[in-house]
Amino acid sequence: MTAVGIDAIEIWTGKLQLDLPGTFAPAKGEDPGKYTKGLGLETSSFPDAYEDIVTMGANAAKRLIDRKGLDPQDIGRIDVATESAFDNSKPVSTYIAGCLEQVYDGDFHHANKGERKFACLAGTQAIDDAYNWIRAGRNRGRAALVIATDTALYARGDPGEATQGAGAVAMLITEEPSVVELSTEQGYGSADETDFLKPNQQFPSVDGKRSMQVYLARMREALTDFESVAWDTHPDDFAYIPFHTPFPGMVRKAGLLGYRHMIRDTEIEDALEGRIGRQPREEEYDDREAYEEAIRGYMDDLKETEEYRSWYADTIDPTLDISRRVGNWYTGSVHLARTSALRRAAENDLDLAGKKLLVASYGSGAQAEIHAETVMDGWREEIEAANIEDQLQRRYDLSYDEYEGVHDRHNHDMDVEMEEFTQPEGEFVFTGWGRMSERKYDYVE
């Protein structure tokens, strides 16, 4: 069966950054360690005055199309995943296609366009849609362009404010991909939850404690479901495990949960038994509360073992490098994590071809999806071609007062004029509104 997967990845980060320990924490009168050690974040990314989810997505897509030497006829599908949309009818993909048609000969009139919504999971679901479209033979030899683009803003003073971020990830889905092949097996964990939602509002309503519980519960279900159709996973099976990363601190919890699950009834659990005992089994306890208390104690001991610490450093920590510097990109988050891991591997000159990733996506509301990916021979060339570090280094560093102005500028309920902090060059920009309140865009040479 022909491999289908990700052939290329490009990233576009918002051009502004907020230093969390150096600028945000002092303005809030808080310990900088709350952000660097607790949340695991250093800086957040924000869009400049002329940026939004359309420009970031279109700019990431243009960079990908140019690098791969494509034209509109090569792309038969454009799917945008976002939870920052500003229109309940017209999809963001049509705006992005309109932007791209300003700079390429031909058009995307032939391309199927859509917008995916399931909180942060939607980017992975859009990849699934593209995969199925190609597998069904409906693509006519054309590739699919999947774009995850978001501006993740919280109300000022909200506990989630420090996790904000803005950016886009563009991915080309093809047969015989260069980066990763997607597994046919998938696992799901899904339930009707109200952990995080936006009922006709821009800023989310969040139950932080509940959101963490739901995230971990759905991830556990998805891993179990994946194993039911794939294989019993083991910590040594995967070079990296990219998780949905609203902030790195949450991934620390998910990583520990996943490790505990995968070592159960293995030689690793046997080796640890003399030091921390075996994992509690629910059937050994009279009630659920006692079992859960025993599990918490076991996990406290497990996370201090050298075996777990070494595995986490090798398998999970590399996935967090970019997220620490940009914050939460919602639909793009797990795809940043994948890119971050591959980038670390390239920097360390590792040979990843043929190795596997376990990709763990999540969307509030709530659903987790887990699938495996096999790294392809062309992964290094594709990852090294992206200019991620250059973009991160060039961001404008906001003062706290400037940050407040940027936040107001991108609040859909406010009409705030703001001078740009950076100068656009070779990119799409937002220019204002049309006669039907549609957003207008131009390309700046």
From TrEMBL:
Keyword hit for Nucleotidyltransferase: no
Keyword list, A-Z: Acyltransferase, Isoprene biosynthesis, Transferase
Keyword Nucleus: no
Domain Hydroxymethylglutaryl-coenzyme A synthase C-terminal: 195-411
Residues covered by the Hydroxymethylglutaryl-coenzyme A synthase N-terminal domain: 3-175
PANTHER family cross-referenced by the UniProt entry: 3-HYDROXY-3-METHYLGLUTARYL COENZYME A SYNTHASE, HYDROXYMETHYLGLUTARYL-COA SYNTHASE
UniProt name for this protein: Hydroxymethylglutaryl-CoA synthase
Originating organism: Halobaculum saliterrae
